[in-house]
Design brief:
6-stranded parallel β-sheet, 12 strands, alpha/beta, TIM Barrel, Aldehyde Oxidoreductase, domain 3, 11 helices, 2 domains, single chain, 44% helix
């Protein structure tokens, strides 16, 4: 979990536990003796890529620091139906109180990693990198972008603070691509590359004439996209985005682009089916 500072990890997990447990788990506290000890396992119910195991473990650690784990898999591993991922030993109450929160993190992050890996495998022969976007769950971006990395993808900007990306609304607001780029160059350090989103060939040509470093070809039909790549190739780095499905990836990658950014990695993935069972 090197991408996620521990204090950030702990804070998010603490808030998730407060949300679920609130003033207490009235069912568990009414039925389970305080001193009861159990073992439990987390099991895969379908195949995919595992991500978020340290997050799931942190859930139980925050409830009881003495809880014990035996890992059978690690983040990034391919798992199949029936695989035991993790064995947990500790107070039965702790296991039951943390079950849903731990699984919520683990299932969602594994779902992101699994879908990312499918995309990465399609474009790998063409040397294209799969990027995520800022279309993430509020407050959980760092976890979701971590899962993208586990699946073999790359992180685009983490937020508005770490990269220059001139989008359509910036361009409308200031009256054109050239003006937007000039304003950035006047105010931002030269160490930042300037990426410009373009939606047609005229905007692309303006971005090239204005010496953009990267062009983002957004929501173009395939024929226009093909022509745009032929114009821009060799002059700038090329990123493609805009409702790109798994089925679209290979024909886009064949064009010779550098990056394909996919919002679906973090907003339309399917959670991986996992379960926790007491032994």
């Amino acid at each position: 979990m090197r991408l996620i500072p521990y204090l950030h990890l702990r804070k998010i997990v603490e808030e998730a536990l407060k949300e679920d447990i609130g003033f207490g788990d009235i069912t568990t506290e009414s039925t389970i003796p305080e001193d009861m000890i159990s073992r439990a396992v987390i099991i895969a119910k379908e195949e995919g890529i595992l991500a978020g195991l340290p997050v799931a473990e942190e859930v139980f650690k925050l409830l009881d620091s003495k809880i014990e784990f035996k890992e059978f898999k690690k983040d990034g591993d391919e798992i199949k139906k029936g695989d035991v991922i993790l064995e947990i030993k500790g107070k039965t109450k702790t296991i039951l109180m943390g079950e849903r929160t731990a699984l919520n993190f683990l299932q969602r992050l594994s779902g992101i990693a699994t879908y990312t890996k499918k995309c990465v495998d399609v474009v790998k022969p063409y040397g294209v990198k799969i990027l995520d976007t800022r279309k993430t769950t509020p407050t959980l971006r760092i976890f979701e972008k971590y899962a993208v990395k586990i699946g073999g993808g790359e992180n685009h900007r983490f937020g508005l603070y770490d990269m220059v990306l001139i989008k359509d609304n910036h361009i409308r607001a200031v009256g054109g691509i050239k003006e937007a780029i000039e304003r950035v160059r006047e105010r931002v350090s030269h160490v930042y590359k300037i990426e410009v989103e373009v939606t047609n060939l005229e905007e692309l040509k303006e971005a090239l004439e204005s010496k953009a470093d990267i062009v983002l070809l957004d929501n173009m039909d395939y024929d226009t996209l093909k022509e745009a790549v032929s114009i821009a190739k060799g002059k700038v780095m090329i990123e493609v985005s805009g409702n790109i499905s798994l089925e679209d990836l290979e024909k886009i990658a064949r064009l010779g682009v550098n990056f394909i950014s996919i919002g679906k990695l973090t907003h339309s993935y399917k959670s991986l089916d996992l379960s926790l069972e007491l032994l």
